Amino acid sequence: MVIVGCMLFKKHKQRTKLENRVWWEYAQEDIRELLYESEILVENVAKWRHHFHDYAFVVFPAAKAYEGFLKKLFFDLDFITEEDYYGKRFRIGRALNPALEPRFRANESVYDRLEKFCHGKELPDALWNMWRRGRNMSFHWFPDEQNAITYAEAREIVSQIFDTMDLAFVGCKLEKK
Question: What pTM, to 2 d.p., does this model score?
Answer without folding.
Answer: 0.84
